[in-house]
DNA sequence: CGCGTCCAGTACGATTCCGGACAAAGGCGC
DNA sequence: GCGCCTTTGTCCGGAATCGTACTGGACGCG
């Protein structure tokens, strides 16, 4: 495979590694396409690879017999396969692709070997786990204290952050599942956001018009998790 | 301080350590009382110590200007100070004591040194982080898909697990804050649980009468997180 | 033993959101 | 251009929960 140049990567975790750590991982990283609705990790199944996203969007989903909810969102700021960092090869959650993209993936064994060899690598990826915990915690808070419109604004902002574009390829149905609400509830909430010109909704996509306005609308449901990421990776 | 014997400890994480890892930590562990409403970790402040709980209950709380919600619950099955494991010395969350108890605490620097020295220690504590992520994820799910009574049943079960007693020293006000609902909502929900003889409510405490019945009531909101803990620590 | 404080119980209108159903419209394949 | 499937828009009654306020009882303290 072609030589990977660290500076050419979009993944913020790989970019934050020391040159030495990157050199350790690079030989094992393979570019992999991700297509929508694909499950890159399936609940309670062995995790064969970790994925460093270059583009696209993946949801971490808790689903049981009686329903499913999104608990976390990962884009090129993060990675899929956190349980591997934490000493286990499986998890009850699913990781499902929400927007097409590509990832650099590495076999579980290679990642674990690199982790054992480098405290600096453990530090970078550990800090990512911290940001993920804060993100999930923020989701608990948002679901408890905010109405659908605010949570939708938060979700749109998070998605925009991770995709790095203003046009988000998302249907109402998907957003409803992610937020754990009824689909018509999303339709109505989108109309409200559209009415104040914060977004423009088209069939199958949402276009962000006024990011600052969305942040106002989302209030404290958006922000803390993002601040934690910037604190830990902002300089990197 | 007196010699600590690993087999005499109630904390399940310390009990799960190898003898070698325990010996590494033991000289630095100091028994510390925890009193109700004390914040053992304050948001965005440096974390000086990690706490391995021997008894008592601590909540992880996300609070902002506009509200606070519990995102996780820790007892003798766990530890406080997870960010230290993940390469940072602070977090936006608070850790507040909900029931008096004691903990064995260790200075951050000593813990980090031990982590650097032992892959096995990293494994045990990393797996605890995994169980914590699943617990928080389960809270997202419970808040999205279950009514107050079921969530209350879940919370009572989790508290009972962690305290190891049937009598839980908890006021309605506290439960309301933890679940992110109104206080009278808790009163009503408790009456429903009491009506079916699952619990008995007294002033300032709840007594579990029928644990199996509570599990039925909580349905899928309770279980997955606990199964994950047993999978990772069940034999230990 | 009496007072003050914390805690539990109750009420009620307002509001959000659900559950389910159905109709319109966009867009793709043929 | 036609038909079909997906997606979106809309409607309704009903349930859950909220916000707020007030009452009465339990407990601790002096």
Automatic annotation (TrEMBL), chains A, B:
Q: Which InterPro entries match?
A: cNMP-bd_dom (IPR000595), cNMP-bd_dom_sf (IPR018490), Env_Response_Regulators (IPR050397), HTH_CRP (IPR012318), RmlC-like_jellyroll (IPR014710), WH-like_DNA-bd_sf (IPR036388), WH_DNA-bd_sf (IPR036390)
PROSITE patterns in UniProt: CNMP_BINDING_3 (PS50042), HTH_CRP_2 (PS51063)
Kindly name one Pfam family recorded for this protein.
cNMP_binding
Query: What keywords sit in the KW lines?
Result: DNA-binding, Transcription, Transcription regulation
Annotated Cyclic nucleotide-binding domain ranges read: 13-99
Kindly give the SMART domains that the UniProt entry links to this protein: cNMP, HTH_CRP
Entry superkingdom: Bacteria
- Provide the HTH crp-type domain boundaries: 146-212
| Name of this protein | Crp/Fnr family transcriptional regulator
Species assigned in the record: Methylorubrum suomiense
């Amino acid at each position: 495979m072609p030589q990977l140049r660290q500076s050419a990567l979009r993944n913020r975790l790989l970019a934050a590694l020391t040159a030495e750590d990157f050199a350790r991982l690079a030989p094992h990283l393979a570019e992999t396409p991700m297509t929508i609705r694909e499950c890159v990790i399936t609940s309670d199944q062995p995790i064969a690879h970790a994925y460093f996203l270059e583009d696209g969007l993946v949801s971490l989903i808790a689903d049981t017999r009686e329903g499913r909810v999104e608990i976390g969102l990962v884009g090129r700021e993060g990675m899929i396969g956190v349980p591997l960092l934490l000493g286990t090869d499986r998890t009850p959650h699913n990781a499902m692709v929400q927007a097409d993209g590509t990832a650099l993936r590495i076999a579980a064994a290679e990642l674990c070997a690199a982790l054992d060899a480098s405290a600096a690598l453990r530090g970078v990826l550990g800090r990512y786990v911290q940001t993920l915990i804060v993100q999930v915690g923020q989701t608990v808070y948002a679901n408890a204290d905010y109405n659908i419109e605010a949570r939708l604004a938060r979700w749109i902002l998070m998605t925009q952050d991770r995709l790095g574009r203003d046009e988000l390829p998302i249907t109402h149905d998907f957003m409803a599942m992610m937020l754990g609400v009824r689909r018509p509830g999303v339709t109505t909430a989108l109309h409200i956001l559209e009415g104040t010109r914060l977004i423009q909704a088209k069939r199958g996509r949402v276009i962000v018009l006024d990011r600052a306005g969305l942040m106002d609308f989302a209030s404290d449901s958006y922000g803390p998790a993002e601040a934690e990421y910037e604190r830990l990776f902002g300089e990197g």
